[in-house]
Amino acid sequence: MSLISNPEFSLINGQSHSSKQQVDVINPATGESITQVSEADNQAADIALQAAAETFETLSNLTAHTRSKVLRKWYELVVEYRQALAEIVTKEQGKPLKEALAEADYAAGFIEWYSEEAKRAYGQVIPSHSQSHTLTTIRQGVGVVLGITPWNFPLAMITRKVAPAYAAGCSFILKPSEKTPLAAIALAKLAIQAGMEVGAFQVLVTNDSKGLVAHLTQSPQVRKLTFTGSTQVGSALLKQCADTVKRTSMELGGNAPFIIFDSADIEQAISGLMAAKFRNAGQTCVAANRVFVAQGIAADFTDKLSRQVEQLKVGNGFEEGVDIGPLISIEAKQKAQRLLEDALAKGANIAYQGDNQAGQFMAPVVITGVDNTMALFHEEIFAPIVSIISFEQESEAVKMANAVPEGLAAYFYSNEVNQIRRVSAALEYGMVGINEGIISNPVAPFGGVKFSGLGREGAQEGLSEYQEIKYLCQKFY
Question: Which long-range contacts (CB under 8 A, 24 or more apart) does 298-305 make?
Fold first, then answer.
C-alpha cells in the first residue's frame, strides 16, 4: 500500500476529494515540490462535518472493546509502516531521518496507550443520600471534534489527539498544517485500513486555514476544538468557539527555561540541554529557550557546551550523520537571525557559531551575556540558538525563569535534594524536567499553564478531554 500519491487528496468520508485548487508541498531541504494536495473548501468541510456527525452516532453504539481493537490494529500498522512514515516526515518537514523514526515510534505510542485506555473509561458509583436512590456517573464521547495540528511533529501531534478522541467514541475532522499534510493523510489511510469508520477520521487540507477553521467553528455540530500552535492563534480560536460554547484544549506557545545549578553534574546537564535544545533544529514548543547557568560554573559550562555543539552536523535529513535539518521556511530563518542580531546589538557575545548555511539551513549558535532587554528572552526562538544567562542566587534564577507569560515546560539540573523540592514547586510551568532534557511520554500528561494553554494531552487526562460526565439519579419504588 502506497502512503502518498502524486497528486494527493484531502480525505473526506474515506474518499479522495478532488479540487481545482491545490496545496503545493515543498521539501524544505531542497526547495523542490514533493507533490500537490487537493484543497478543501467550505463546501467540502460541510460534507466532512455531516459524515462526522453521522459517524459519531455509530461510534456511540460501539463498545469500548471494539474501539480498542481498531486502535490496536492502527498501532500495529503504524509500526509496520514506520520507515515509510518517517521518510514522509523528513521529506515534507525536514528533520533528520533518525529523528523522524523516533517520532514515528512516539506517535505509535499514543495509539497503543489509548487502545488500552479505551477500556478504562470508568464511571463512579456515588454513596447515595437516601436508601431509595442509586447515584452513578458514566462517561460518553463529547461529539464531533475539530483538530488543528502544527508542522513540527506532523505524526505525533495527530495521534495524541485522534487516538484518545476515538477511544472516547468521538469522530474527528483534522486540519493539518499545509506545510506537512502528507503525514496526516498517510495516518488516516492506515487508520481506515485498521477498521476505523471512514467518517471517524477525515483530513481537510487548505491554504486558507483561517477561513476554513472559522467556517467549522461556527457550526454547533462541532462540539470540541483541540489545537496545537501559537498563543496568538489559540486566543483567537477560543473567541471563535465562545458563541457555540465548545469544549477546547489548547497546547500553545512555550518559552522554556533550562537552569543549571552549581551542584549539577555538568556533563549530564550538557547532554540534557543538547537534547532539549537541538531536537528538530530547536523547532519544538518545549525546546530550551533560555539557559540559566550558575555564575561559578558558567565559563566551564559554556566552553564544554560549545565543544559539543561544534560536533553537530547540519544538512539534508536523509544524509548520513546529520543532526540538524533545515528550518521550516525562509521566514523562520529570518526571524531567528533577527533575534540573534538584536541580542548581539544589545550586548550579547558569541561563544560559538557554525559556518553560514544556505537556504533554510541555520548553523547552531551559542551566545552569552543575554538579559531581559533582548527579544529572544521573551520570544520563542524556534531555531538552533542557545542563549546563556548567568545568575548568582537560586531565587534570582527562578524569578527570571517565571518572568514570561508562557508556562509550558521547564528544566533544571541539581543534585541538592532540598533545592530540587523548592525549585520544582516554585517554577510556574505545567511540566518540569529534573535532571532530564526529554520529558514527553504518552503515559504522562502534556500541557501548560498561564498563556501556554488549557487542558492536557496524553495519559488518563488526555482521554478525559474528549469525554462528558453524565450523572444518573435513579429512584426505586
Answer: 298/368, 298/388, 298/390, 300/266, 301/260, 301/266, 301/269, 301/270, 301/388, 302/351, 302/366, 302/368, 302/388, 303/351, 304/266, 304/267, 304/270, 305/270, 305/273, 305/351, 305/366, 305/386
**Which CATH number does 256-441 carry?**
3.40.309.10
Across the 477 residues of the chain, what is the mean pLDDT of every consecutive 10-residue run? 85 92 96 96 97 96 97 98 98 98 98 97 95 96 98 98 98 98 98 97 97 97 98 97 97 97 98 98 98 98 98 97 98 98 98 94 98 97 98 98 98 98 98 97 97 97 98 95
CATH topology of domain 10-252+452-474: Aldehyde Dehydrogenase; Chain A, domain 1 (3.40.605)
Determine whether 394 is an active site residue: no
| Residue spans per domain, the chain | 10-252+452-474, 256-441
Among the options 87, 99, 251, 380, which is catalytic? Answer: 251
